[in-house]
Amino acid sequence: MFKRALRAARFDSKLYQEIADDPVAFVQAVGIMVISALAFGLGIKAGDPLEQYANKSYVTILLWSFSYHAVAWALLGSLTYAVRRLRARQPVPLVATLNGIGFAHIPGVLYALLSLGSEYLMILTNMVVLAGMLVGLAVAFRQTTKAPTSLSFLMAVIGTILVVQVRNDLLVRIVL
Q1: What are the residue boundaries of the structural domains of the chain, listed by start?
Q2: Tens digit of each residue's pLDDT, the chain (176 residues)
Q3: Cα separation, 141 vs 100, whole angstroms
Q4: Where are the alpha helices (DSSP H) in 89-172?
Q5: How many CB atoms sit inside 10 A of residue 91's CB?
Q6: Residue 23, C-beta contacts closer than 8 angstroms, at least 6 positions apart
Q7: Eight-class DSSP state of 1
Q8: Which pTM does this prediction carry?
């Protein structure tokens, strides 16, 4: 898993072809999503410079983080599946799509930097992680859907915007 995670961090397009039909890759993709969710939840709670989450328990924050990551995975998977289905007019294995999206979330491990507690570092970390995920998703979408790069990038932008909106909405509903 570690070698594949490094390849995902380098945006290796061949990785996404390799993991499409590998049943072990699904478990690894779940592992990456769990690690990303843990890094995000723990980073936000431990490094809360504005003390927005001071009255919330780690359990609440982690439940929110896991909920967000699960919804994001399902949302991005559905988007990719629908585009592939419309473009190719043939079914695409949903597991292959979820594998790619899971591996594209590898920049999420950097959310652990949020625990350092600097407001500026939080903004910078969020920008770097979202940019990394955007590129990773574009590569994953391109390999999974066989769509042109421009369409893959557009899907990644739309998916990232939707995911950030879901994250913020869940934050308000569950945590704050």
Answers
A1: 2-175
A2: 889 999 999 999 999 989 987 889 999 999 999 999 999 988 888 887 667 777 888 898 899 899 889 999 998 988 888 887 777 766 667 888 899 999 999 999 999 998 887 888 888 999 999 999 999 999 998 888 778 899 899 999 999 998 888 888 877 776 66
A3: 8
A4: 94-104, 119-145, 149-170
A5: 9
A6: 95
A7: -
A8: 0.88
